[in-house]
Amino acid sequence: MSRYALLAVLLLLVPSLATAGEIYGKITEGSAPVGEKASVSVKCGEKAYPAQKTDKSGSYHLVVKESGKCTLTVAYSGQSSSLEVVSYDDPVQLDLAVETKEGKLSVRRK
Prior knowledge:
Elements: H1 2-18, E1 21-29, E2 32-33, E3 38-44, E4 47-53, E5 59-64, E6 68-76, E7 79-87, E8 92-93, E9 96-101, E10 104-109
Parallel strand pairs: 1-8, 1-9
Antiparallel strand pairs: 1-2, 1-5, 3-4, 3-6, 6-7, 9-10
């Protein structure tokens, strides 16, 4: 009987893993990628996801378990800037541009 109980628990967990959303994209400054110099984190409701560093091409990839409104934060050159995004059950590509105006970092959708 315990084998069937384990199987039932595993089957219940699989749909919850499948509903995790993904937010991915590329970050640029001007026309050049930021490279490995930036990190991206996201907070959805009370759940915060740790920062992920960008790769050589300025790409990032986050897995978010919740759907709905989230705050995405980009840290770059010793500063950070945030913007509101929406996480869905399906993957979302979100390419971003960072720029410094009057000494303050800003991030926007591309």
